[in-house]
């Protein structure tokens, strides 16, 4: 591959798919359709398609289309040979380590209750257990809904915590009457640390309960909800509990879900998560962006490796409903979603028929994903694009996008706030 010498550049990528069992089956999956168009590989109609990865992470690398060896040059290798494509600010802060990982998720059933470690914890976990914790980076992330998208995220407010303990005898059975009474006697004017420690204690008691005990408790819980559902309308959270128990019978994550916020996103709304915050994606499809890491600490709703002790000790135990990002207007066709992280932001662009827009030159790299329609992306020369195309744009590249029939695309890039600070 020739040296780029800092010139404007737009190149197509061949990307990676993950087939976790929580993915949507066959052609119903947006991930499957994008992968089919991107990698030109057939879809198995009976197979789950869960994640479409775009970036440089070694667990799912992207390749430069038409690169040396029939496309076997990874984006990471190509960037290391052409570091100027990242721009001076990114190179100074992260070197040639690409700062973000871009994904599409197609979720048919709940992912694990999990959290992502901060930088210090990620470094120590990777050193101690490199086969489990694949890198030493933190993983703040954001999910931007393509369809109705549901998640558990963060701990419920103090008032909801108290109501949950008051109305869920199965939780009291696990944590004990004395601790339940402590929760019910809490007040907002009690010290934050006192509230945090009690929440941590209750959550830890639930997550570490013996398997035979949780099986018996969940049996009682499901029987009670099914019975009460004949006489009253169950709450959305109670309906979710019944659904989770069908997906993961006898799993402690079903009971602990009571303590987490149940979030429903409409298309075009986004949810972001800092390090050490508990969450579980439940259903729907989304574009996801995160720091370039695959570190996950799981503790429930999963057959995979769990590290309950680390998860319960690492969480912040902040309470309250998470902020939902609606996006800010960049131009008539583009909304920007900018969480409070340096590594990334995401633009959502929906171009109607016979329209044109410009993504101005910025001092850092971008990855573009076309999720629908077709059109052209132009730097110095035109590039025809359509559904499934993924393109890397070098720093300082101005791109004009045009369409006759309509085009729906996303751009992931380094947070523009970082470049403002370095002006």
Provide a concise account of the structure shown:
The chain is of the alpha+beta class and 423 residues long. The protein has helices at residues 30-39, 68-71, 75-81, 88-94, 119-128, 158-167, 169-175, 177-184, 192-207, 211-228, 236-247, 252-256, 308-314, 416-421, and strands spanning 10-14, 16-18, 24-25, 48-49, 51-54, 63-64, 100-107, 113-115, 141-145, 149-155, 260-265, 270-273, 279-291, 297-300, 324-325, 328-331, 334-337, 345-351, 355-359, 366-378, 382-386, 390-393, 399-403, 407-413. Strand 16 (328-331) and strand 17 (334-337) form a beta hairpin.
Structure overview:
- Helices cover 30% and strands 29% of the residues.
- The chain is an alpha+beta fold and 423 residues long.
- The strands form four sheets. Strands 1, 6, 16, 17, 18, 19, 20, 21, 22, 23 and 24 form an eleven-stranded antiparallel sheet that branches. Strands 2, 5, 7, 9, 10, 11, 12, 13 and 15 form a nine-stranded antiparallel sheet that branches. The protein has a two-stranded antiparallel sheet with strand order 3-4.
- β20 and β21 form a beta hairpin.
- α7 runs antiparallel to α10.
- The protein is globular.
């Amino acid at each position: 591959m020739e040296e780029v010498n800092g010139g404007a550049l737009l190149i197509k990528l061949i990307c990676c798919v993950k087939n976790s069992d929580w993915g949507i089956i066959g052609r119903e999956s947006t991930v499957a359709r994008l992968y089919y168009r991107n990698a030109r590989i057939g879809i198995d109609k009976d197979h789950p398609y869960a994640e479409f990865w775009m970036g440089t992470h070694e667990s799912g690398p992207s390749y430069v289309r038409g690169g040396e060896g029939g496309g076997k040059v990874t984006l990471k290798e190509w960037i290391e040979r052409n570091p100027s494509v990242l721009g001076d600010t990114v190179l100074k802060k992260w070197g040639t380590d690409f700062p973000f990982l871009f994904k599409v998720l197609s979720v048919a059933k709940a992912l694990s209750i999990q959290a992502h470690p901060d930088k210090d914890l990620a470094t120590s976990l990777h050193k101690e257990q490199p086969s489990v914790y694949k890198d030493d980076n933190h993983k703040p992330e954001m999910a931007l809904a393509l369809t109705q998208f549901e998640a558990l995220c963060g701990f419920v407010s103090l008032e909801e915590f108290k109501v949950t303990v008051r109305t869920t005898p199965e939780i009291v059975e696990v944590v004990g009457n004395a601790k339940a009474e402590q929760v019910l006697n809490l007040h907002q004017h009690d010290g934050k640390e006192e509230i945090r420690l009690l929440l941590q204690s209750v959550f830890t008691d639930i997550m570490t309960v013996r398997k035979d005990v949780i099986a018996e408790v969940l049996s009682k819980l499901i029987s009670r909800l099914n019975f009460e559902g004949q006489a009253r309308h169950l709450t959305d959270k109670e309906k979710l509990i019944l659904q989770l128990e069908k997906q993961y019978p006898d799993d402690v994550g079903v009971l602990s879900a009571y303590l987490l916020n149940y979030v429903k996103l409409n298309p075009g709304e986004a949810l972001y998560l800092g390090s050490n915050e508990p969450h579980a994606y439940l259903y729907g499809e989304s574009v996801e962006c995160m720091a370039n890491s695959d570190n996950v600490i799981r503790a429930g709703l999963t057959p995979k490796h769990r590290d309950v002790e680390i998860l319960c000790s690492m969480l912040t135990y902040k309470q309250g409903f998470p902020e939902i990002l609606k996006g800010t207007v960049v131009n008539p066709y583009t909304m920007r979603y900018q969480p409070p992280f340096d590594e990334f932001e995401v633009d959502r662009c929906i171009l109607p028929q016979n329209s044109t827009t410009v993504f101005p030159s910025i001092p850092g790299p971008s990855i573009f994903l076309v999720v629908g329609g077709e059109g052209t992306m132009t730097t110095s020369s035109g590039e025809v694009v359509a559904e499934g195309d993924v393109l890397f744009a070098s720093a300082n590249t101005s791109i004009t996008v045009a369409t006759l029939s309509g085009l729906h695309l996303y751009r992931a890039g380094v947070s523009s706030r970082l470049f403002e600070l370095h002006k």
